[in-house]
Amino acid sequence: xxxxxxxxxxxxxxxxxxxxxxxxxxxxxxxxxxxxxxxxxxxxxxxxxxxxxxxxxxxxxxxxxxxxxxxxxxxxxxxxxxxxxxxxxxxxxxxxxxxxxxxxxxxxxxxxxxxxxxxxxxxxxxxxxxxxxxxxxxxxxxxxxxxxxxxxxxxxxxxxxxxxxxxxxxxxxxxxxxxxxxxxxxxxxxxxxxxxxxxxxxxxxxxxxxxxxxxxxxxxxxxxxxxxxxxxxxxxxxxxxxxxxxxxxxxxxxxxxxxxxxxxxxxxxxxxxxxxxxxxxxxxxxxxxxxxxxxxxxxxxxxxxxxxxxxxxxxxxxxxxxxxxxxxxxx
Length: 331
Ligand SMILES: Nc1ncnc2c1ncn2[C@@H]1O[C@H](COP(=O)(O)OP(=O)(O)O)[C@@H](O)[C@H]1O
Ligand SMILES: [Mg+2]
Fold this sequence. Notes:
Bound molecules: adenosine-5'-diphosphate, magnesium ion
Low-confidence stretches: 35-81
Strand content: 15-25%
Number of domains: 2
Order of helices and strands: EHHEEHEEHEHHHHEHEHEEHHH
């Protein structure tokens, strides 16, 4: 039985018009703080050094890729006429694929490609508009509880009790899954040490940690519940090279030691190439190619005897460049 079956899944979002108070602020030329309505921005990260006002502008200014649904989007804050109009975004556009048990499967694509939406659909956090998703044979719409028991998800911005230590956060998480406290303590130390966290950090408040360290704690929390399917949404984005390698090593270990099926998203070509058995290249909500890294690279002819890189394949397939991951680094 396949670990994940995604059948012709379609999901669009209607962007709601701004609430009354935001419009008043805008008309007076004041930028309002983002309320993180798109779910990517759930307000739990405490490294909010990116300007919130800028994010709002960014949101409206991003051209949506939904074909035929909307014209050019006006990103100016004072554009009145278009403001209340509903803008539709097709986040996942008739996507189908299958992930086999024990596979490390990558979804590679640029920002806004639909990767996180796909992960949320698989993890029962969103419902598809049409299409079907099965996790180990369970329909994600009909067997929500069952699916939630066998999966765990690490999102880009994991939430923690910031005043508490990793140990306290993880014990709390494990208890929710009904796990034994004493055994969990041992496992927490073991997993976090393997991920490169110092002993001292395990007992210090989360708010004192870098984003890289917090990300490792988020992954450790997911691993503690021994999920059959682990969904990792950009697990290494914003990490320094060393932390990246540590996280990647743990992903490989999970599969080697426990046969965990892993579905991860990334915009890092090298990571996808090195880590994944198969890769779905996603752009504007569609899967534009799906194969092993080697086969994908054979899609375009070698230059000067050297095989093509995934970057070149992506450019060839979409006419676009993938985002440089370094650009996004928040460290
Ligand atoms: N909750 C939401 N409401 C409205 N639009 C959304 C929401 N979530 C995602 N989107 C839009 O759907 C598209 C795909 O987003 P996402 O799945 O987050 O892409 P990725 O994870 O590949 O960067 C983007 O255009 C994004 O703005
Ligand atoms: Mg995302």
